[in-house]
Design a protein that fits this description.
With 210 residues, the chain is an alpha/beta fold. It has six helices and seven strands. It has one domain: 3-Layer(aba) Sandwich (Rossmann fold).
Amino acid sequence: MKKPHSRTRAKAPAKKTEKVPIAILISGRGSNMRALIEACARPDYPAEIVLVLSNRPDAPGLEVAEEAGLKTLAIDHKPFGRDREAHEREIDAALQASGAMLVVLAGYMRVLTPWLVKAWEDRMLNIHPSLLPAFPGLHTHEAAIKAGVKEHGCTVHLVTSGVDEGPILGQASVPVLENDTPETLAARVLEQEHLLYPDVLEMICDVFAK
C-alpha cells in the first residue's frame, strides 16, 4: 500500500485568486453588503469591492463600508428631481471610474431606468426577498403569508428593465410557519440572503475570471 504523504512536507504556495472588481449600490444599512464584505475579505474569494455607492448620503451602510476600509461615495438623487437618468449618468461615471466589472445591488431602493440597465447589461445583480417569479416588488413577506404559501425565500437575479424579472441565478427557501409574522419570516429569509448572495456572486466572478 502506498504510504500517505508526510504532514511535515512543504506545501506548494497557494495559487493567488484573480479578483473581479465589483461595486455595491446601497440605500440603507447595507445588511447584504456586510455579508459580501466578509466574503470578499477571504483570500480565495474571487471578488474585490472597489466602490460602495449610495443614493442617500445618510445611509448607515456607508459608514460600515468606510470602517471596512472601502472607498465610498454618495450621489444624492434629490437634487436631480425627476430626472432619474441624469442621476444615473453620474452614478455610471463613478462606476466606470472605479474600474468595476460587476455592479451588485444590495438594498438599493431606486427603480433603475432602462439607460443604466442597458449600460450594465448582464453585469448587474440584485437580490430579492421572494422566490421569483412569485411576489415581485415590495412587501413580499406580507404577501407570502396572505397567499398561504408553504415556502418563501430569496432570489438573486440579473437586472433587466422589468422590475424583478431578470434571469434567475440562484434561490434559497425557508418554510412559512403557522405563527409567522412578516417580521419573523423576514428575519429567516434575511439569513438565507446573507448566504446566497456571496455564493452566487462567487459563481459569477468565476465565470468572469476565465
